[in-house]
Amino acid sequence: MSADKWCARTDLALETQESLKKANTDMRGVNFSEKKLDNGIIVSVVTIDSENAVRATGRPKGKYVTIEAAMLSEGDEECCQAVTRELSRELKSFVKAVCDKRIYAALVVGLGNRNVTPDALGPRCVDSLFITRHIVKEYGRYAFSNENVNSVCGLVPGVMAQTGMECLEIIKGVVSEVKPDFVVTIDALAARSTKRLGCTIQLTDTGIVPGSGVGNHRDGINHGNLGVPVIAIGIPTVIDAVTIVSDAVNASRENTAKLMSPKLNGMFVTPKDIDETVKRLAGLLSEGINMAFSNDEYDDYRE
């Protein structure tokens, strides 16, 4: 396999920015900032605002926020709570940027295959959401202790192998009926670095292309295709096997390429405790989303 036949895939804009910087690539239009919070949490922001940046990164224009916390992968309770609060704050900021309504309607879509553990993050997150649309529609907002309740509904479209339909086709149909002010997608991602598996959350206002991180590109779920803003949230649960081999042998690109087999280039690796990790992270994401979308009525629901 020649050196140009393989590449380490990543869904994280932060990792793309790091790779470009390391390669001394022209990064005009790629802006980066970082802040460190308590509990070892690092929040990074990558903005892509020029055609040059789009070509260099291979990503659409927009804002990419990454929340990193090494202790998150260990299930540290205090860290999980801090990350949940930060996720809620960041999501509220994204919502405010795409929707100027005080009371809004949101559709949350859990992407992925529920039957494949590393890919079940989206569906399992939606399972734990505080859904309100049906109650608001049937009884009105006064059914809650706070009349300023947002209308939230969820969808798990499955994958094409299960339904015979593109996720985009299903979501477009639901959007046309429900008419949300914006859509939030939840999906499992692929990372370039093993240190980011299960402990990194990415939020972006650009939408998402399901399966792109593992080379299985589907139609993009974005504002252009749906007609409403799309906020994408994801956590990396797999890493390209090529990346692991490359890092392990610590060789040049040419020598590493000789060690790669065609089969290895299509293989992805996930942590051995991924079942427990996905369960924990799905709960964290749903809690953060519930906090961002809800007011007093969610506190009542939790009690």
TrEMBL record:
<keyword id="KW-0645">Protease</keyword>
<comment type="similarity">
    <text>Belongs to the peptidase A25 family.</text>
</comment>
<comment type="function">
    <text>Initiates the rapid degradation of small, acid-soluble proteins during spore germination.</text>
</comment>
<feature type="propeptide">
    <location>
        <begin position="1"/>
        <end position="11"/>
    </location>
</feature>
<dbReference type="InterPro" id="IPR005080">
    <property type="entry name" value="Peptidase_A25"/>
</dbReference>
<dbReference type="GO" id="GO:0004222">
    <property type="term" value="F:metalloendopeptidase activity"/>
</dbReference>
<protein>
    <recommendedName>
        <fullName>Germination protease</fullName>
        <ecNumber>3.4.24.78</ecNumber>
    </recommendedName>
</protein>
<dbReference type="Pfam" id="PF03418">
    <property type="entry name" value="Peptidase_A25"/>
</dbReference>
<keyword id="KW-0378">Hydrolase</keyword>
<dbReference type="GO" id="GO:0006508">
    <property type="term" value="P:proteolysis"/>
</dbReference>
<dbReference type="InterPro" id="IPR023430">
    <property type="entry name" value="Pept_HybD-like_dom_sf"/>
</dbReference>
<comment type="subunit">
    <text>Homotetramer.</text>
</comment>
<keyword id="KW-0865">Zymogen</keyword>
<dbReference type="GO" id="GO:0009847">
    <property type="term" value="P:spore germination"/>
</dbReference>
